[in-house]
């Protein structure tokens, strides 16, 4: 048996394309023209990856509101920090970077309306939050970060092998303030870790999250820490809509009452204002609803998106209860979701009020249109009566005109016959002028009547053509 592995059935088969090499050695041809966004769209699924993290580790995480126009300022500020630690600055168009600063690592991410700065230090530590990573950063650089701080969190990840904390030990390590919020915590990542936080901002402006690694590897640790930080960041970004929604409530209530009053007036007819005044009032209410919507719509829409992300991050934590503690998911259900339901309620009220204004305006416009149609009908009837009167008057004048024209025509004929009778060659005519005029009067009348009637028909025909 030959040592060749080629299929005998394919040995003598002609190639599909002239010059094609065997399948094992075929070279790929050139692809058609590439879409300019192909690479960027493909790389989007790799954006913001989970960075592996080896416990023990500490993180200081800051999120600042920057809007959508400060990206260049942030990159310039990052470049100053890189120059301080003598490292290469981020690329000009970067939206996320991981930079080794020597003693710690910095992860910067640019989002639509906020940016995050994560300062990461791996290695053993003593007390969990006694020496945060943020102390390695120059204070003047930290104070001048573009934007406004919305989130600041210290995270301590303890390595496996240590004692497992209970509720009281975790609260003490978090530095819970007397009378402050009780700690929330749970087993996470299917029991591979535990995490605690009290959602309280400490005297230094940072809240705290304590994580114990029981049996996680570097990648699972990185994923868990990132999910916790994203959960808190998105929670605070979602809550930005809550004060706006709460402030908009009384204004929406007032608009709703005024719309109800106008609707009642339309139904009962007891309002002394005319329809035009009511329509002007509805126009004002519609403008007020649009003004409130323009002020809060963006934040309410963003809150809905951020709330969905918070729910997704909580689900990905895969929590299990710790004795004596509420889980992070339970804390969010009791403290966070009611605020988001308020935002959702305000958004629904805005949409409902806009629809009510539109329906009431349509109802009022319909009533106004009916009244206008009735007025137009009466006006047309009046115009029709006037036209009939004018027609009859015209016919009367037309009859008088026929008589007058006939009279003058007969007179002219009489004068002509008398003149003819007085001439030498007409003196011998046996017929008197009066007899000729008397006999010609009916003929003159019919000719004049026919001419006037024909003229009126031609004028009517010309007017009808113009109308078409």
Give me the side-by-side strand order of the main sheet: 2-3-4-1-5-8-7-6-9
- Reading the helices and strands in chain order gives HHEHEEEHEHEEEHHHEHH
How does the overall form come out from the CA principal axes? elongated
Kindly report how far apart the N and C termini lie: 99 Å
- Judged by helices, strands and strand pairing, the structural class is alpha+beta
Helix content: 55-70%
Strand runs, count: 9
Mean pLDDT: 82
Name the poorly predicted regions: 1-17, 19-26
Strand content: 5-15%
Number of domains: 3
**How does the major sheet shape up?**
9 strands, mixed
So how many helices?
A: 10
Whole-angstrom Rg: 47 Å
Summarize the structure.
The chain has helices at residues 8-11, 38-44, 71-84, 139-143, 167-174, 218-239, 241-268, 275-317, 328-422, 433-467, and strands at residues 57-65, 96-100, 105-110, 114-122, 148-158, 184-188, 193-197, 207-213, 320-321. With 468 residues, the protein is an alpha+beta fold. Strands 2-3-4-1-5-8-7-6-9 form a nine-stranded mixed β-sheet, with helices on both faces.
Structure description:
This protein has 468 residues and is α+β, with helices and mostly antiparallel strands. It has three domains: 49-217, no CATH class; 241-377; 389-467, no CATH class. Helix content is 56%, strand content 13%. It has helices spanning 8-11, 38-44, 71-84, 139-143, 167-174, 218-239, 241-268, 275-317, 328-422, 433-467, and strands spanning 57-65, 96-100, 105-110, 114-122, 148-158, 184-188, 193-197, 207-213, 320-321. It has a nine-stranded mixed beta sheet, sandwiched between helices. A hairpin with a 4-residue loop joins strand 6 (184-188) and strand 7 (193-197). Helix 6 runs antiparallel to helix 8, helix 8 (275-317) runs antiparallel to helix 9 and helix 9 packs antiparallel against helix 10 (433-467). The longest helix is centred in the C-terminal third of the chain and has 95 residues, at 328-422. The N and C termini lie far apart (99 Å).
């Amino acid at each position: 048996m030959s040592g060749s592995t080629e299929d005998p059935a394919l040995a003598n088969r002609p190639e599909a394309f002239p010059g094609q090499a065997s399948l094992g050695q075929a070279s790929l041809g050139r692809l058609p023209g590439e879409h300019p966004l192909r690479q960027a769209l493909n790389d989007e699924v790799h954006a913001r990856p989970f960075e592996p993290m080896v416990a023990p580790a500490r993180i200081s995480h800051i999120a600042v509101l920057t809007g959508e126009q400060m990206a260049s300022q942030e990159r310039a500020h990052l470049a100053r920090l890189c120059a301080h630690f003598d490292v290469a600055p981020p690329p000009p168009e970067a939206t996320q970077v991981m930079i080794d600063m020597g003693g710690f690592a910095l992860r910067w991410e640019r989002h639509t309306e906020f940016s995050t700065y994560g300062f990461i230090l791996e290695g053993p530590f003593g007390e969990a939050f006694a020496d945060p990573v943020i102390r390695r950063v120059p204070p003047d650089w930290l104070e001048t970060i573009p934007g406004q701080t919305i989130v600041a969190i210290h995270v301590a990840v303890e390595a496996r092998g240590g004692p497992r904390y209970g509720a009281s030990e975790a609260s003490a390590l978090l530095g819970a303030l007397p009378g402050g919020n009780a700690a929330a915590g749970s087993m996470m990542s299917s029991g591979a870790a535990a995490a605690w936080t009290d959602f309280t901002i400490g005297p230094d402006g940072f809240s705290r999250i304590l994580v114990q690694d029981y049996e996680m590897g570097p990648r699972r640790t990185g994923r868990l820490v990132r999910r916790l930080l994203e959960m808190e960041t998105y929670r605070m970004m979602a809550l930005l809509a809550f004060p706006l929604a709460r402030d908009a409530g009384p204004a929406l209530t007032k608009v709703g009452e005024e719309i109800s009053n106008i609707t009642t007036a339309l139904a009962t007819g007891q309002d002394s204002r005319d329809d035009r005044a009511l329509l002007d009032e509805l126009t004002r209410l519609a403008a007020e609803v649009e003004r409130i919507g323009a002020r809060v719509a963006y934040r309410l829409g963003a809150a809905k998106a951020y709330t969905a992300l918070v729910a997704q991050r909580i689900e990905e934590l895969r929590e299990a209860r710790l004795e004596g503690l509420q889980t992070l998911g339970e804390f969010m259900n009791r403290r966070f979701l009611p605020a988001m339901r308020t935002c959702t309620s305000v958004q629904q009220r805005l949409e409902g009020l806009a629809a009510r204004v539109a329906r009431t305006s349509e109802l009022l416009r319909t009533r106004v249109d009916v009244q206008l149609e009735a007025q137009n009908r009466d006006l047309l009837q009046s115009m029709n009566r006037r036209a009939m009167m004018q027609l009859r008057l015209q016919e009367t004048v037309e009859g008088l005109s026929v008589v007058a024209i006939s009279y003058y025509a007969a007179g002219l004929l009489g004068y002509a016959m008398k003149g003819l009778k007085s001439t030498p060659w007409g003196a011998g005519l046996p017929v008197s002028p009066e007899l000729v005029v008397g006999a010609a009067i009916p003929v003159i009348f019919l000719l004049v009547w026919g001419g006037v009637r024909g003229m009126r028909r031609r004028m009517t025909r010309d007017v009808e053509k113009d109308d078409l």
